[in-house]
Design goal:
The complex is a heterodimer. Chain A is of the alpha/beta class. In chain A, about 45% of the residues lie in helices and about 25% in strands. Chain A has eight helices and six strands. Chain A has a six-stranded mixed β-sheet with strand order 2-3-1-4-5-6, sandwiched between helices. By secondary structure, chain B is α/β, with parallel strands linked by helices. Chain B folds into four domains: about 10-235, Rossmann fold (3-Layer(aba) Sandwich); about 240-365, Rossmann fold; about 390-425 and about 435-585, Thiamin diphosphate (ThDP)-binding fold, Pyr/PP domains (Rossmann fold, 3-Layer(aba) Sandwich), CATH 3.40.50.970; about 590-645, Alpha-Beta Plaits, CATH 3.30.70.20. A seven-stranded mixed β-sheet of chain B has the order 3-2-4-5-7-6-12. Chain B has a five-stranded mixed β-sheet with strand order 9-11-10-13-14, with helices on both faces. In chain B, strands 15-16-17-21-20 form a five-stranded parallel β-sheet, sandwiched between helices. In chain B, helix 16 (about 455-465) packs parallel to helix 17. Classes of the chains: A alpha/beta, B alpha/beta. At the A-B interface, helix 1, strand 2, helix 2, helix 3 and helix 4 of A face strand 1, strand 8, helix 10 and strand 23 of B. Strand 2 (about 35-40) of chain A pairs antiparallel with strand 8 of chain B.
């Protein structure tokens, strides 16, 4: 088997940790895993795309147009990665809460509409699941659990090859004990949201 | 992180390439490690510093790579296995000792790890340091994945001891900063002390002295005489793999390039059809496999990350054998010599090279999405909210604006290098004019030259001594000051140059991830055992005009720089302010209280020009991003309409 996915977000959102958690869940199931991180300069607030490859793989990066899933912690970053990497059969799990880049906030560029981002990604891939994941993270008690919300949604999507619990176990082994409950709650909120969205899509 | 010292042999864990190298070195019983921080290599020493808590090993952040190299070499000569790690650019600092110590070799195993950065993600160039190993006739490991990196780092020490020469391990960003599944090996229970001791005539008279009789030429001959045993190892090592194919075509690949090749060959269904030489050692090459290729193939494609290092060796070998076969690679620009390669690039090269014979997949691009790509907005990295450099650059800008002549600001390497990133504008145009002044609309256009560690101060001196009429400025940080500026400053003072050096002391080697610098006051592992004082050093060097200012007081910063500009001779302005990310980490913040009074704001964008990412602009007014703002108070100082309130009182 081979599974290619990319976790996209803004530095500080936890996309690299999320990608490591997915890779560790695969290793726990006896599979090979690679994670290739790409960012601009090694600084805060930049675009981060973490490539996760599972199965019979050797290269650290997903090939163009071959991502089976894109987990976007931020919509613009989902778009940035999607236009290059999303496969025609791939899905996108998109947090709709934007973090405008400084280039937008100082008035040089304008941020694309969320609806436009969703329609572009829908035109490229098979399905875009979109919801305000930041709100769910806050509901779980800590906005920093955003990556767990997205992982929860991913665990219940058609792209995840194992039982959702496998991913939850990986999360529990990586997050600090003090935030374990919040992360589990966030994971379950993401999971419920995905069940609801998939139901709607039937 | 605990998996680094995990004694659970056979356990499979996810490790970053740099962690895998550190783990492998520990399995190879390394007991001494040095490095200067540099992305993408820094986590090697960071990991060993953490391991120090459980395994007795000496590890330090050295002042620079040359010093790190010599410190590690010293340990090897008295019999302690040592590792030195650096990034591509750091390797340039090492060349002097590197090229000379190989004449005597080393005693205890020594591993030199260099992490290159093809694609220049974190570097000012894309240089391929494997040339160093070739230049110096050392064995060059080039792992293709994290587990191989671990194994090679493990084997390096005993190999080094048998060759009596250091082993070179070349990593790249996609290995060092990527993660993969690694199977933990055995950690030794105790240090290997068999070689502990010193003998100045060890096996060879005046062993550790290139001048000692019979001199350097004879020691050069000794280095050449070691090549046979290196070649013997290369011929039999399992790190090189050869698969013979049916067709008269072959691919040679090495390192991370092999990981892309593996997939391209699989995707194109070429396994078993073409011959495949997969190298784990980029220098020297295994002759028996090369001969096999020469005898069975008419076309060979060489795939490697970086410059044509393997390819050059293969071309020379082919010529030496008097064989005439077609070789494609980077020397003939068949594969571009710039930027990174990846599976897509390799697939395309394979299909182009072997043409119809092996083609079984169309060359069409998966997508033509140009229209969609236009909607992707850039996300530029900036200095952080509340960064002390924002204050330093604001004061510098104001001082520059008062000068009649064009001031030249020479940058250096560190967070403050972002002063040359040219963001906050859509497009900068070139001009054929010889002499021209440009407005400074943000801190991101304030640096005029930007090259390497230490170049700013020396270039400023050269400009000043040449008779250029404007003020010449060098900008550096605290870590850079000790790494590279010390000789430049001594030179400037000794030659009484009329230039100004700004030292932006934020107390950390911040850009590479906050490693302690010699001015860090911290209990972090790797912290300086004695904290060094930049003002005392500058004074001792004989600088007559020294200013020490708080970087968060923009008027004082400006006044100090203006004053330094009037001094005839070398002047130094030390701008102090701890990295705000660290301040926020170790102080308990209450709440964000800085606000912009929307009534008073005229939309003049002066505060936007400060360059702080916590200041946004919407509907003709500036406003504060409460999530990012750290109340540093800089924007309140620069607002001409007193529309901004709050922030730290710095007095």
């Amino acid at each position: 088997m081979e599974l290619n996915l990319i976790v996209a977000g803004v530095g500080g959102q936890g996309s690299v940790l999320a990608s490591h958690i997915i890779a560790e869940s695969a290793i726990s199931q006896g599979l090979k895993a690679r994670v290739g991180e790409t960012f601009g300069a090694a600084m805060r607030g930049g675009a981060v795309a973490s490539h996760v490859r599972i199965g019979d793989v050797s290269a650290p990066l997903v090939q163009k147009g071959k991502a089976d899933a894109i987990l976007a912690l931020e919509p613009l970053e989902g778009l940035r990665v999607g236009v290059d990497y999303l496969s025609p059969t791939g899905i996108v799990i998109l947090n709709t809460r934007p973090i405008p880049p400084v280039d937008v906030s100082v008035g040089i560029f304008s941020y694309p509409d969320i609806e436009e981002i969703i329609s572009i990604l829908s035109a490229i891939g098979k399905r875009v699941y979109h919801f305000d994941a930041t709100e769910l993270a806050i509901a779980a008690g800590n906005y920093r659990t955003l990556n767990s919300v997205i992982l929860g949604a991913f665990s219940t999507s058609e792209a995840f090859p194992f039982q959702p619990e496998v991913l939850l176990e990986s999360i529990s082994s990586r997050v600090p004990p003090s935030s374990k409950d919040a992360n589990e709650k966030a994971f379950n909120l993401g999971r419920e949201k995905m069940e609801e969205l998939r139901e709607k899509n039937k | 992180m605990s998996s680094i010292t995990d004694r659970n042999e056979g356990k499979r864990v996810l490790l970053m390439g740099n962690e895998a190298i550190a783990r492998g070195a520990l399995e190879g019983n390394v007991r001494f490690a040095t490095a200067y921080p540099g992305t993408p290599s820094s986590e090697i020493l960071e990991t060993l510093l953490k391991a120090k808590l459980e395994i007795p090993i000496y590890a330090e952040w050295s002042i620079n790579e040359k010093v790190a190299f010599e410190v590690a070499f010293g340990a090897s000569l008295v019999g302690v296995r040592s590792l030195v790690a650096m990034k591509n650019a750091g390797f340039n600092w090492v060349m002097d000792p590197f090229m000379t110590i190989s004449y005597t070799g080393c005693k205890a195993g020594m591993l030199i790890v260099v992490a290159d950065d093809p694609g220049a993600h974190y570097s000012s160039n894309e240089q391929d340091t494997r040339f160093g190993a070739e230049y110096n006739k050392l064995l060059c490991f080039e792992p293709s994945c994290q587990d191989e990196a671990r194994l090679m780092a493990r084997d390096a020490f005993s190999l080094s001891e048998s060759f009596e020469l250091p082993i070179f391990l070349r990593s790249v960003t996609r290995l060092s900063h990527a993660s993969g599944d690694v199977t933990l090996g055995k950690l030794p229970d105790a240090p290997d002390e068999r070689l502990l001791g010193f003998n100045k005539h060890w096996k060879i008279p005046y062993r550790w002295n290139v001048y000692g009789p019979p001199g350097a030429v004879s020691k050069h001959q000794w280095l050449l005489s070691r090549q046979g045993m290196i070649q013997e190892y290369v011929e039999t090592t399992p790190y090189n793999k050869f698969e013979k194919g049916e067709l008269p075509f072959a691919i040679i690949s090495s390192g991370i390039g092999a990981s892309y090749c593996d997939e391209a060959i699989k995707n194109l269904g070429l396994s078993g059809k073409i011959s495949y030489l997969r190298l784990g050692i980029a220098r020297p090459l295994p002759i028996k496999f090369l001969i096999e290729l020469l005898n069975t193939c008419k076309l060979v494609l060489v795939v490697e990350e970086g410059d044509p290092v393997v390819e050059g060796q293969f071309r020379r070998f082919t010529q030496k054998q008097g064989k005439c076969l077609e070789i494609k690679g980077k020397e003939d620009n068949f594969i571009p010599q710039f930027d990174e390669i990846n599976t897509d690039v390799v697939e395309e090269a394979i299909q182009k090279a072997f043409g119809e014979t092996v083609k079984n997949r169309s060359l069409e691009k998966p997508y033509q999405l140009e229209k969609f790509k236009e909607r992707v907005v850039p996300r530029s990295s900036t200095l952080c909210a509340g960064c002390p450099h924002l204050g330093s650059y604001w004061g510098l800008k104001k001082a520059i604006q008062k000068e009649k002549e064009v001031v030249v600001v020479n940058g250096d390497i560190g967070c403050y290098e972002q002063g040359g990133y040219g963001i906050f504008s859509k497009k900068d145009l070139s001009s054929p004019d010889n002499h021209k002044r440009y407005p400074i609309n943000s801190p991101y256009t304030i640096l005029d030259t930007l090259y390497v560690m230490g170049s700013g101060a020396s270039m400023a001196q050269g400009m000043a001594q040449s008779g250029y009429p404007g003020k010449c400025v060098g900008v550096c940080g605290d870590s850079t000051f000790f790494h590279a500026i010390l000789p430049s400053l001594a030179n400037g003072v000794a030659n009484k140059a009329n230039f100004t050096l700004l030292v932006l002391d934020n107390r950390w080697t911040a850009m590479t991830g906050h490693q302690p610098s010699p001015t860090s006051c911290t209990k972090d592992p790797g912290a300086p055992q004695t904290i060094l004082s930049i003002p005392e050093v500058v004074k001792a060097f004989g600088v007559q005009d020294i200013h020490i200012v708080n970087a968060y007081q923009v008027n004082e910063v400006q006044a100090a720089i203006e004053k330094a500009f009037t001094f005839n001779g070398p002047s130094v302005v030390i701008l102090e302010g701890e990295c705000m990310l660290q301040v926020v980490r170790h102080t308990k913040r209450k709440w964000q209280k800085t606000i912009i009074d929307q009534e008073k704001c005229t939309g003049c964008k002066t505060c936007i020009q400060l360059g702080c990412p916590a200041i946004n602009f919407k509907d003709g007014k500036a406003l504060i991003d409460k999530l990012q703002c750290v109340d540093c108070g800089l924007c309140a100082q620069v607002c001409p309409f007193e529309a901004i309130e709050g922030g730290i009182e710095w007095n």
